Amino acid sequence: MSGWELALLGVVVLVGAFLQASIGFGLGMLAGPVMALVEPALVPAGVMLLATGVTAATVVLEREHLDLRGAGWALLGRVPGVVAGAALVAVLPTRALSLFLAAVVLFGVYCTVRGFAPRPTRTAVVAAGAASGLMGTATSIGGPPMALVWQSKVGPALRGTMGAFFLVGSVMSLLALTVAGQVTGEVVGHTALLLPAAALGMLVSRPLARRLDVRRVRYVVLTVSVVGAVILIVQQFV
Asked: Where are the transmembrane segments (predicted)?
């Protein structure tokens, strides 16, 4: 990576980590499309490595608000989703994977804007976990399904429960991606350069999270994500 590319990704990761720690998701949706444009080799493994660190910190900070039962059912669904996602990464060429990533972002934004709000029944949580496992492993963006099914949760409960799910789920995905040959020394080295930005985003989120207008921030995340996805699609055809 060149200096300006590292600086750009650093800013994106900082903002994404801030959002992930504040509202429960955002790192994958922001960083995924940008990394696919700047440094495609970092998707999905690089984003997943960063997300694992951020979610681990979130779980520690919000441990008193975890819904372990809900997270457990979601993780049950995530297992087959992870296997399917790893298979996609292994067989899809870079261009197809980039288009799939963009499609996942746009579909997640569409569902959110349309107000799709499934009841968090056991079946719905398991299904969302499976979708999150597939999408997260293949594209690093596994947040939308869980954000939809758990949107009745707010504040620390949402951050803590999603953090617990994504911590274990990210480890599953990383293991599957390692088996698929996607977690290379180069990916780990480049990702390590972005860890300070992720840590700074986490630190900034602590004093500011309670003051955020979650609804407004969510729509900012969605808007930026759409822009990134559209640019990524255009790039594949020029």
From this structure: 6-30, 42-61, 73-92, 99-117, 123-150, 162-181, 217-237
CB atoms within 10 A of CB 123: 12
The 3-state DSSP composition of the chain as helix, strand, coil percent (nearest 5) reads 85, 0, 15
Residue 70: other Cβ atoms inside 10 A: 22
Q: Is 163 helix (H, G, I), strand (E, B) or coil?
A: helix
Which letter does DSSP use for residue 225 in this model? H
Q: Tokens for 60?
A: 């520690």
**Cβ–Cβ under 8 Å, residues 104 and 143:** no
Q: What are phi and psi of 110, to 5 degrees?
A: -60, -50
Q: What is the pLDDT of residue 209?
A: 67
Can you spell out the DSSP letters for 36-88?
Answer: HHH-GGGTTHHHHHHHHHHHHHHHHHTGGG--HHHHHHHHHHHHHHHHHHHHH
Q: Counting every residue, how long is the chain? A: 238
Contact between 31 and 13 (Cβ < 8 Å): yes
Domain ranges of the chain: 3-235
The token pair at 81 is: 């989703």
Peptide bond before 44: cis, by omega within 30 degrees of 0?
Answer: yes
Q: Is the pLDDT of residue 10 over 70?
A: yes
Give the CA diameter of the chain.
Answer: 50
Closest by CA to 106, choosing from 77, 75, 135, 133, is: 135
Tokens representing residue 145 in the block: 């399904």
pLDDT classification of 210: cutoffs 50, 70, 90:
low
Q: Are 158 and 23 in contact (CB under 8 A)?
A: yes
